[in-house]
Amino acid sequence: MTIVVASFVCCNSDDHKTGVDDVTDTVKDGTWRVSYFYDSGADKTANYLGYSFVFGGNYLLTATKETNTYNGQWFVSKSTSDNDLYSTIFKISIGPNDIFENLNADWKVMSNTDATLTLKDDSKGETNIDYLTFEKIVQ
Q1: CB proximity list for 31: less than 8 A, separation 6 or greater
Q2: Element (H, E) at 2
Q3: Is residue 103 part of a domain?
Q4: What residues make up the domain containing 42?
Q5: Which range among 6-10, 21-25, 92-96 shows the weakest confidence by mean pLDDT?
Q6: What confidence score (pLDDT) does residue 4 get?
C-alpha cells in the first residue's frame, strides 16, 4: 500500500506544470525571449537575439525588437491527435516578418517552470525534431 501511495505522490501531474492552465498562467506573466531554437538540424537561436515576446490577454502575442513590433496570436490546448492525446499544445502564429515563419507551429510542451517554457515540434517526423525554449526576461 505504501508503494502505491508513494507512486501517486511522486508522479502527480501538477509537478510537471504542463497542463493547459499551468502553461497559460506562466506565459501570461512577464516578458520572454527565445533562449534556444533548434530548427531543421541547426541552432538558429541567434536569429531571435534582441526580440522580446509578450503573451498577452485575449491570446494576443507581441514580439518587439528595438522600434519594430510584430503582432500575432498564441493559444494553449490539449492535443486531439491519437498519437499525442496527453500532450499540451502551444500554438504560435505571428508575422508577417519571415523570421517568425519557423516559430509558427503547434508546439508540444515538454516542460514549464516560472522561468522557462521548453517546446518541441516533431510533426516532420522523429528524425527531424525542432526545439524552442522561451526564457522569462528578469527586469
Answers
A1: 52, 53, 54, 136, 137, 139
A2: helix 2-10
A3: yes
A4: 16-136
A5: 6-10
A6: 40
